[in-house]
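Summary for the funding panel

The consortium committed to producing paired sequence-structure records for every protein in the target list. Below we show the first two records in order, beginning with the earlier of the two.
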Amino acid sequence: MQHLHMCLLCLIALAILSYFVHQKPSWVTDYKGKVVSTNEAQPWRSRSPLYIVVVCCGQRVQETLVMIKSAILFNYDEEYLKFVIFTEDGKGEEFKEKLTDWRDIKPFTFDFEILPLKFPSGNEVEWKNLFKPCAAQRLFLPSLLTNVDSLLYVDTDILFLSPISDIWRFFKKFNETQMSALTPEHENENIGWYNRFARHPFYGRLGVNSGVMLMNLTRMREMKWEQHILSIHKEYKLRIIWGDQDIINILFYYHPDKLYIMPCEYNYRPDHCMYMSICNMTHAGVKVIHGNRGYFHSDRQPLFKSIYEAMENYQLGSNANTDFLVPLHAALSIPSVNDSSCGKISNDVLKVANTVIGNRYRDV
């Protein structure tokens, strides 16, 4: 009888041990060492992600990572960000290694997904090499991300100087027909490209720039976006210069009711300041800066390079005030920046950062 009792106790002990081995713990330790429940540690389970999509080919991995870092740095609302990166073979591991490290540093605030390129069958090479390598991938997002309702697409040469939630609010301003938001290509007819040189239709008076693009994929699928894209490419491919951006301009020329126009501070480019200041910004300053045509890596307008280098040098997780904002102030104060045409907007560049970063650390 005693032997039977001992066997029964052993079976109970094994059952308890098996439970703890195979059951997932309902708690984790956060990055500060505090023990929290999994529901608390993973708040995105109850929140919809804000999707940021980018396409990276060629020598643009580092530029893309700096863009992602800027989005994470300015995410002071702690929205759940989901980065979707379309890239060519051989680059996925480089992204995965760095983004996994950053996710450990900034847990519970962002996630990422790396996807292969995919273009219409039978015409992959032509689409891949339309204008910049792979840039046309964004034209096919409605069919590639079928479970996503809305997203923000950005070029690799973009830096966020404000929270993602700021630009995301434009989705709520869409009327019942609008499915995308873009900024004007130019603000002045005297230096506009489309109104002077385009050999195809374009949106409005001066066209739109496609480097920063809010996309409601659900509405795009409903209007059969990709069928329109293929038809436009077939008809106009010998007359377009700027690839996917020209195709987008042609589409919204025929469907202007489907486009919402954002102010220029959400896609601020060298063209806005290199000759004269033509972006009439609100009091809030520059929100998203676009170093197109290589301006992040050139001394032609050193303001753009200074901002990029300050963001590139910042180590995510360190003190954003002393390690990003203070060096950025110093870089924008040197004579070569101050004396340049675009240097005159330095204060507009710093407005959001001073508020979001400077005030936060002053309150600590």
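The next record, for a separate protein in the list, is shown here:
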Amino acid sequence: MPTPSITNFTSSRFALTGFPGLEIYYPWISIPFSVIYMTVFLGNCIVLHVIRTEPSLHQPMFYFLAMLALTDMCMGLSTVHTVLGILWGFIQEISLDACIAQSYFIHGLSFMESSVLLAMSFDRYIAICNPLRYSSILTNDKIMKIGVAILCRSSMLIPPVIIRLKFLNYCRPHFLSHSFCLHQDLIRMACGDIHFNSIYGLALVISNLLLDSVLILMSYILILHTVLSIASEEERLKSLQTCVSHISAVLVFYIPIIGLTMVHRFGKHLSPLVHVLMGNIYILFPPLMNPIIYSIKTQQIRARMQRLFLRGP
């Protein structure tokens, strides 16, 4: 599959990057990626179905899990057309408007996932540190308000920096680093004044991803302090086991983000293939792993899935 030449571009077209040097293997590479996307959609749909149809799962912890599954499914939907489109040979480039829209959804959904993970850590903190007031604190009304706050935080803070991308002049080679669009990729190709995007983008990362990670860490420090004060070792282990799924989801989300940030910041000398791989891990690893983690580690989800597949609803 030939790589489009930069001379074929207009000022509003950008070349997507698949797997450099592996173009002849795209039909084979598309098979595992198609399986991954199908697993993402099917796995998260099953989690949502199980939570909706099982009355015993109508609890705050599982409402937050449903938010996480919905966010992961939307993340898959936001990138599937460009990632598989390149591998299947349907597309090689993307317009500026489509690129801006895709970057809005990718970054917005990342912030949303971070916010949901923070809400889940708050849920675990209340459940372990203040169990007697758990049901009175996390009422359905409170959960709905938290959900609306997450949606507003994730969708309303990003437009200023994303909209400005439309009015920048892109005079550098129009080759994206990934098979999807990211804000930092477009900024790299701009040759106008990007101070606003750089400063505002950094502020968004600090006020969302960094702040959320710090608050999640603080919640687990408080949880650990409470658990260690429990006399019974069996009760300590039982309390910690309720956090294993969430801790795994946090690691699955933040480690790829840190890796991709390091590659973008310090990996300019690395092969383009490394950038592509890290980008795909960042996009696909959390949506793929979260349903697996929660179906294995959460007894209620696992039991309901076993009944669903073995004996029917």
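Regarding this second record: Confidence is low (pLDDT under 50) at residues 1-10. The CA atoms of residues 61 and 123 lie 6 Å apart.
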